Structure formats: structure tokens, C-alpha cells
Amino acid sequence: MESKLREFFNTNFKDSLVKEETFRGDLSFFVKAEDLYAVCEALLDSHELQVKLLADITSVDWLHTDEEKDGRFEVVYNLYSIPNQFRFFIKVRLSGDDPKVKTVTDLWAGANWMEREVWDLMGIEFVGHPNLTKILTADELDGHPLRKDFPLTWEQPKFTWNQNDPPEVIK
Amino acid sequence: MGIEEKIPDSIILTSLDKMVNWARKRSMWPLGFGLACCAIEMISTFSPHFDLARYGMEVMRPSPRQADLMIVAGRVSMKMAPVVKTLYEQMPNPKWVISMGACASCGGVFNNYAILQGVDRIIPVDIFVPGCPPRPEQLMDGILKLQEKLEKESLKDERTEWGRKTV
Amino acid sequence: MSTESKTITLNMGPQHPSTHGVLRVILELDGETVVKAEPVLGYLHTGIEKTMESKLYYKALPCTDRMDYLAPMSNNLGYSLAVEKLMDIEVPEKVKWARVCLAELTRVNSHLVWLGTHALDIGAMSMLLYTFRDRESIIDVYEACGGQRMMTSYIRIGGLAHDLPVDFDKRVRNIIKQVENGLEDYETLLTNNEIFINRTKDVAVISAEDAINWSLTGPMLRGSGIKHDLRKANPYTGYENFDFEVCVGKKGDAYDRYVLRVEEIRQSLRIMKQALDGMPEGPYLAHVPGVVLPPKEDVLYKMESMIFHFKIITEGFKSPKGAVYQALESPKGEIGFYINSDGTNKPNRVRVRPPSMINLGSLPKLVEGRMFSDVITAIGSIDIVLGEVDR
């Protein structure tokens, strides 16, 4: 399966592939962000590879590390081929100022909530997503909690009922 | 035969406070409302093994308008806090609150942006039950402690939004 | 008289007795037919992923219990396996067998709670009382192992927290017997029950293609007839040594998923028997100084162990730079831990692939165009735990 995947990338997406990495048996392909949709579409269409299951979409923030030079954010697509029982990752690096990548919701319906979650928690925009709104955090919360510059213990108790009239402490 | 035969022709002398508290204590209906892990332990408490029905509290009410006791079982997130507050306000007086578990009492292990650091910031709490999650016996103990506390209350006590003041 | 038909919007939850937690669903109804269903999440958002980033690898472990609180051991196992993969630790043989046994015990626990609550939602109230009776014995074993009824944190990085309790074998064998007998009762109550069949057959149907397209895993995927189980496909912690069947459904409706889960309990009992029979003797922790905590009894008497214990607790261990993903078959589906390390003693990013959240994403697909009462069945048959959905 690994050699088939390499062959797939070498024949169809030689220019899109940035690098290939294997760590502890997990195979990942870094592709250019603008080609991501085309790669996913080709993988889904490929009869030989049978990559039909998008297991997960997640993201990483590399702020203040030496990895930041390649782009602050990393979006990880976790793909699985059920007939071949093989898992691999497609990763894209995005800049810190305006992280954007094309949505894959029209390829995989399940990507809808995963992309919403990434947007909510990490602030990466998925262009063309049908309903890119908050999914987990409270409506009052500003910002994207999983970013490294968001403080962990910052409370934002901006409830509408007590904004002007904070509760007394019981004595 | 039973007590009902004796009652009609007997007189019981007591204070009104004591009689009302006696009645309230033995028919406290909790709101069937769970948030997180502690809710499962709460269900265990109601299940036959631990059998909360022994204390007259097994009637879980799905509607806050019929409930006297709110067991906040689990972590209260910032998004859930307004809902918990609304539920509390919908309950008719007199009402009591048990904060079950470390997360509801003080935020527990989750000292972060998403979790309210203690449900007593939004509603008055009568009994805090510690544990993560508390054992069913602990919850029962909390309920019994609440009943003890209830016996000391008086009808004269003024109920305010932020706790009770003795006049 | 106006003849135009109007839809009404109905809000269900977040405080609703049959949503298994604080799920809120906004339903648009035309009469009794659901036109649109939109789940609203986040009422239990705990920030677990962010919290785990701020902790040492060891200290992040208790957070995993509190996600899927019906299957705590599966989460512990997933996280421990992911860190072991990152640090390249090989665990002793006994640990593997004990872990398999505990993971299957957890599956039985989770499925029993599912069975009780799902039947309760549909109207069979007594099931909850029966399944919680059986669950109580499993919880007792948890308590004997980890000292806690639910949040055990028993499976640790590199092994277990303590050795297995002395009467572990006897207790688990009793549970196997008890659940086997119990299952017969449950099946008499439900499998041929006219009301149960009417409420679940041909309800919440999802086809095999759709199931894959919606990224479903676990019983939701197998219920649609796809034979995919990570225990067989990519065996972890020694599942390749065990003999069991992967059960599949045919139609992909709620009834199929019920039959499938009951059958999965049977297979779990079978695996547990094998694990108990073949449990080897040996240490309960891997010996990797500086990474795996030394056994507690050594810490009190041996200088070296105490130093390592102190070092690991205070400053942790440095991990190599890289990203690992460890998936395992939890009772709800594929739970995966993606740990991204930047070479320090804390993870740079921990992502948990939440099976119940991704399965719940298919709820609109399952209920749209169906009757209103089917929504309850659909939510129940997905088997969600809100702690894991919202994290």
C-alpha cells in the first residue's frame, strides 16, 4: 500500500507534494494547500487505493517553535482505506496571518462537523463550507481556544443576565 | 389496626415549622437532570443496588416546575451555565441545590476557559458533595445532611436570590 | 380558511430526559414529520484537549477518563498506547493480556449502559434496572483495580497502576457468568418484543456507502454491513492472539445495531475468558528508567526508583519530535489519539478523535423525513456520550 501511495503521488501530484515523512510507522504526505482538494478528490476516485473513509480532520499550532518557519498552522487529514486496512495522513501547512484551505465537505459529508470544530477551536477557515459556525465553545467566547496565544485559564463570564449586576458573594 | 385508625381521634401538638419541615423533608423530589460523569453515579444511586427510594426521594421530575431539589451532577460549562440558571429559576420555592462532584463545586481538575469554576457562582448551593465522581453513598450522605439542614429552617426565613437570610 | 402548511420549530434539550446528557436538537416539524434536525453541541465543552497540552505526559492521563465516562479504560488504553508508540516502549506480556481483558470489560460496561438507557428511551423501563445491576459488579472490579468506581486511571503509560487484584480472575469469571445469564433475560424482554421491534425496525437506517461517507465507525458502520473492526484490521495490544468474530448487521437500522451490540457483548465475554485462561505471570510495568514510573513498592525501599519517581513526577520525560496516531476500537467506534510532540516534556497538541461526535454528525441524515418519535430512537441507537462529544 505504501508503494502504491508513493506511486500515486509521483505520477499525479509530483509538484504538489512538499515532503513525505514516516515516524513510528505513521506515513504522512505534506502537500501544498492549494492542491489539497484535488489530491483528496483523486484519492477518493482512485479505484486501486480505495481510500473512502475520512477518519478525522485536526490541526496543530506551531507558534514559538522552530517549525513555525514553514507556516504556523498545520491541518491534518486522517485517511483510512478499509479494504487495504491502511491509514495515512495528508498534512498542509498554512500561514499564521490568514489560514485558509478549501473545504472537503462535498467529498465527505462527515467532514462538516470536523471542519467546524477546527474552525471553532483553531480558527482555520475552510473556504466554501456550507455552515462554518461555532460548534463547541460558548457564543460569548471570543477567539479560538486551541491557539497557543489563547490563555488556558482565562474565564470570560459574560452572561447576559449579570453583565451589569454581578452576583454578591454569600456571607 | 394501623395508625389511620388512631389519628382521627387524637391530637398532635407541634409547631408549624416542625410540621412543615417534616413534610418537606420526606417528600423531596429531585429534578431529573444530569450533566456529565456524576450523572451516571446519580443514576446508580437511584438504581436498585443503592436504592434512594428508602429516603423518599426517588421521584425524579423531568420538569423543573415540579421539583424541589436540583442535583447539579457534573461540570458546568460556560455554555451550560445560563441553562442551569434558568432551570433553577423555573423551580418553585422552596428549593434546594446539591452540588455533586468536584467539577460542579469548584471546577475540579478543569481549571480552564470552558468550565465554570463552581456552580455557586450562579446559583446558591446548600450542600457540596466532594469526589470525582462521588460514590453513591456520598451522595446519599449529602442528601441526608440536606434533610438535617432543612429541619432547622423556619418559615420566617426570607428567601433571596442569593441564599437565605434568617430574619 | 387558509390551506397553506406551516412548519413548527421545536427545541429539544439541552435539559431533556432522553438525550443521554446535555444534547440540544433543534427540530423543524411538519405535523409529526421531521423536516430538519440540527444538533447543537458544546453544552459540556470542557477544553480537555487544551488542558492536556499544559500537562506532563503522565498528568494528562486522568483527563482521558473524563471524556467517555462509560468506557474509561478504553480511553486510558488509547492514550497510553499513543504515548508508548511515541516513546517506543514495549510493554510486558502480562500487561497486554490484562489490558485486553480490561478493555473488553469496559466494552461490556458501556454496552450494558447503552442497552438500559436505549430501552428506557423506547419505553422499556425495567431494562435500566437490570443492566445497572450487572454493571454494578463490573464497577466493583474497577474499584478493586484502580480504587475508584468510574475514573480509574488504571491503565498507565508503560503498564498498569498496580498489579491486578488477587481475586481478579474469580471476580471476572463471576461477571462473565452473570452477564451471560443476564443477556438471555434481556433478549427475552427485547428481541422479540413487538413494541421494541416496531419502534426500532427500519428506523434510523443508513446505507453502507453513506455510513462511510459520513465517517461513521464502530457499531454504526458494522450495523450497515461493513466488516471493519480495528481489533482485527490493525491489531493493538495483542488482539491478534484472540479468537473472536466481528459481527455485522444487514440493513443498518436501529434494530440491527441492537442485535449487533448484544452480540458484541457475547464476543467480549469470549475474549475475556481467553484472556483469563492465558494470563501470563510477570511484571505489571515495563522497565524503562526515566520514562515509565517505577513500581510503587520499589519507590519506598529503593533509592534509584525513588529518584526516577521524583524526576518523572516533577519534570516528566522529553519526547522525540514527531506526531503519532493510535486508534483503537472503543465501544462507540474508533477512538484515536493524535499526539504531536515538539521535543519538550509536554505534548504540543493532543487531538482525540471522538467516535460519538462524528457518529452523531449523521443524526440529520438518520431522522430527516422520518417521524418525530424516531428521533429518540436514532439518538439512542447512535450511542453517544456527551462528555466525549464535547470534550
Q: Features of this protein?
A:
heterotrimer; B: 167 residues; alpha/beta; three-stranded parallel beta sheet; 5 strands; globular; C: 391 residues; alpha+beta; Cytochrome-c3 Hydrogenase, chain B; three-stranded antiparallel beta sheet; 17 helices; 8 strands
What can you see in these coordinates?
The complex is a heterotrimer of chains A (171), B (167) and C (391). Chain A is 19% helix and 27% strand. With 171 residues, chain A is of the alpha/beta class. The model of chain A is unreliable at 167-171 (pLDDT under 50). Chain A contains 3 helices and 7 strands. Chain A has helices spanning 2-12, 36-45, 111-122, and strands at residues 17-23, 26-31, 53-61, 73-81, 86-94, 100-102, 125-127. The termini of chain A are far apart. Chain B is α/β, with parallel strands linked by helices and 167 residues long. Chain B has one domain (28-150): Rossmann fold. Chain B is 33% helix and 11% strand. Chain B contains 6 helices and 5 strands. The model of chain B has no long low-confidence stretch (mean pLDDT 82). Chain C has 391 residues and is α+β, with helices and mostly antiparallel strands. Chain C has a single domain (48-390), classed as Cytochrome-c3 Hydrogenase, chain B. In chain C, 48% of the residues lie in helices and 13% in strands. Chain C contains 17 helices and 8 strands. Chain C has helices at residues 48-53, 61-65, 72-87, 93-122, 126-146, 168-190, 194-200, 208-213, 219-223, 230-233, 254-277, 296-299, 303-315, 355-360, 363-367, 374-382, 386-390, and strands spanning 8-12, 24-30, 33-40, 155-156, 159-160, 322-330, 333-341, 347-353. The radius of gyration of chain C is 22 Å and the shape is globular. The model of chain C has no long low-confidence stretch (mean pLDDT 88). The A-B interface holds A 137-141, 145, 150-157, 159-161, 167-168, 170 and B 77-79, 81-82, 85, 111-114, 116-117, 120-122, 124, 162-163.
